[in-house]
Amino acid sequence: MRLSLLRPVIDRPGPWATVYADIQHGTEDAEREQELLAGATTAQLFALGADEATCGAVHEALVAPRRAEPGVHTGRVLFAADGVVVLDTPLPGPPAHPFAAWGPVPRVTPLLAAVGDDPVCLVVRLDRAGADISVLGERATGEDRSERHVRTSAKGAVERSAEEIAEAVREAFESCGAEAVVLIGEARERHLVHERLPGPLRAVTYESEHGARAPGAERDLVERDIAQVRAAQERDHERAVADRFRTGEGAGGTAARRAASGIPALVEAAREHRIDTLLVAAHGPDAARQVWVGPGVDQLALRGTELVELGEEHPACARADDALVRSVAASGAEIVVVHDPEQAPTGGLGAILRGAAEEPPG
Questions:
Q1: Candidates 3.30.960, 3.10.450, 1.10.287, 2.30.40; CATH matching 3-109
Q2: pLDDT digit string (tens) for 57-84?
Q3: Hey, which residues does 183 pair with through a beta bridge?
Q4: What is this structure's pTM?
Q5: Fold for the domain defined by 252-358
Q6: d(Cα 186, Cα 227) in Å, to the nearest integer?
Q7: What are the φ and ψ backbone dihedral angles of 237, each rounded to 5 degrees?
Q8: For 281-294, how does the pLDDT look when each residue is reduced to its tens digit (9 = 90+)?
């Protein structure tokens, strides 16, 4: 999951104004529509209790001009606190349910559901002179995000050049944590490299019939092919995490240590930093249940009196999904939004606990 998006808002205390807006561009009334949207949104926030400075910052951000294709509807998400828009980021499309909210924690779960995971994919652009190898994905490690260039000898045999490139692809794949490879270039170069990859790597390597190494070569079709591969990666990852959760949940006497579900168990595990992976189904009934939070990411409880006893004078109610996401993201755990209802935990929220993979069964 693209948790880097959340870094500006995770550790900062609220209360927060959250706005998911549907913005129309390039029509005769677009500017007027933006003004009306900004006015209605800030009026709603003010009615919910937001301060004037934060409402003003949101209004200014919503009326600011944005470049886009004429007639296109796009989505934007704004998070504001203490008179500052802390994060203003686009959505892949219009939000499913535009809304404005004011509360102790930002409403981040719909953003995560909209942007999805960011799986690591190795993109290899080939031609007769060599290859450019680049890494896509947030989870890529360190310097492996940068592009590599592999040049082969013009005097060398074609097969030997393919072997050199295949070896470079294998090294890059293993070092960056990629889950798939996309080969782009002429059919002959693609096939020669593909057949020289190790068997397990060939199984997760795909060939795009479009494009070449030259800039702009059939760019849209190439990007579509890469997007399709990464979407399949995301589905596979979601399914694998759901399987791990179900295995841990049904592991007999060790279930309480390997997986957790239900708000009480999840709140306790989050507070103790025992969550390795949080599973969230945005429309599960537990997601909207109320828990109590304080300004700190570890301050969450089932009852406000628990936080009062721990020294928090002004606990506040928040949605369980957003409170858990805030706490889990701050601890460095993974968050996976489960889109398939059949794969989702009962209630819509669940967790794989830290150390689960190392614990012996039974």
A1: 3.30.960
A2: 999 999 987 765 555 668 899 999 999 9
A3: 124, 207
A4: 0.79
A5: 60s Ribosomal Protein L30; Chain: A; (3.30.1330)
A6: 20
A7: -65, -45
A8: 978 899 999 999 99
